[in-house]
Amino acid sequence: MGTDVLVIGGGNAALCAALMAAEAGASVTLLEAAPRDWRGGNSAHTRNLRCMHDAPQDVLVDAYPEEEFWQDLLKVTGGLTDEHMARLTIRASSTCRNWMRKHGVHFQPPLSGALHVARTNAFFMGGGKALVNAYYRSAEKLGVKIRYESPVDRLEIEDGQFRAAWCKGERIEAKACVLAAGGFESNRDWLREAWGQNERGEWPADNFLIRGTAYNQGVLLRHMLETHQADGIGDPTQAHMVAIDARAPLYDGGICTRIDCVSLGVVVNRDARRFYDEGEDFWPKRYAIWGRLVAQQPGQVAYSIIDAKAIGRFMPPVFPGVTANSLPELADKLGLDRATFMQTLDSYNAGCRVGQFDHTALDDCHTEGVSPAKTHWARPIDTAPFYGYALRPGVTFTYLGLKVDDTAAVRFAGRPSRNLFVAGEMMAGNVLGKGYTAGVGMSIGTAFGRIAGRNAALAAAGKPALAGAVKDEV
């Protein structure tokens, strides 16, 4: 079997690549490891796309200029990002939505309580599942051959050029290939290897839950890095990690398992002690650091504590919290040492300096004389009923990936391949060295999926790759 362009993966980046290549006139085959009912990878769990815009645009209010987007990304990554690649992603996010609409994606204003991102993020009507379904429908109309339950375990590469992929014993040739098969977050053995054993003798990765697909095993990523010695980038312990409900399922819990009340209260560990500033910055810019913070705590568990004043100010989780009429009762119900818990809460409450509380702004409600400090939204937890949510690290996707340039070409010893490209989670580490800000994963996947698809079609036609984002009309 042969095809012009072979796309390996089935999520947003893979679909963008397949659509772009098909639009360019290439014959395209897409191999999705999951069954049809579970197609789409982690993209099926997404909700929105972070978009640069200089003026109001349909569902986006006000403006979110390039420099602000860049500063937001710079802050959450702590400088662990490639500015050229990041700005390419940012600029591409400003013009891609008309193309997305052409392929059946619809947008809607954010629902009430949706992370205060009406200005920065465009929400998909029906969520990521609707986006994925729209792209698959469009791909089928364009003649893309889609094969489910088709995991690829190895590639034939000669002198940096793609020749064929092996799928369940079948050799599939193509003139060009796009790798978009996700990270390794679902591979427990690899997570254990990356995180190792801590000073308490624990294997932290054993307590991680996976927010998304069970099919991102990292088989091709490891194959590329180890067998073919492709240039890599990123730290294998860095990932989009969120503090999620400890009762969430092992896989595919998605957005509804996230606990969004962290900034409205305090978080304590298994020893009933606080360990980080819950009010450091707006929740969309900080929610994805809390999984890693919890992963570093004893037993990889923590507890988000709020009181009645917080109810109605955050997106309610799918599971109800543990409820109590007093703080000592809550400690007992959560299995925490009552004396230490009360010492922590009493100290925090006494340290609160309440000004003009405003959860939509970086307000002046803060603590004094308490470590760690709470910088914003600090109010005493003193109004019954009280609520507690047990938290575990929820891994969305890992950042270890393949190093690329702005053509999305895979590189071998610094030399870009002529016909092998990569997009999505498999290269997101070029932009995300650590940290996260809401919706940027879809921005990266869309930008580089489209670049990879365009350039794969050019390679299949014997033409050189183009650098930079796909040009669209605003």
From TrEMBL:
It comes from the Bacteria. Its cofactor is FAD. Residues 4-431 form the FAD-dependent oxidoreductase 2 FAD-binding domain. InterPro entries: CobZ (IPR012831), FAD-dep_OxRdtase_2_FAD-bd (IPR003953), FAD-oxidoreductase_2 (IPR050315), FAD/NAD-bd_sf (IPR036188), Succ_DH/fumarate_Rdtase_cat_sf (IPR027477). The keyword Transmembrane helix does not apply. The keyword Isomerase does not apply. One of its GO terms (molecular function) is oxidoreductase activity. Coiled coil: none annotated. Gene3D superfamilies: FAD/NAD(P)-binding domain, Succinate dehydrogenase/fumarate reductase flavoprotein, catalytic domain. This is Tricarballylate dehydrogenase. It comes from Malikia granosa. The lineage of its organism: Bacteria, Pseudomonadati, Pseudomonadota, Betaproteobacteria, Burkholderiales. The gene is cobZ.
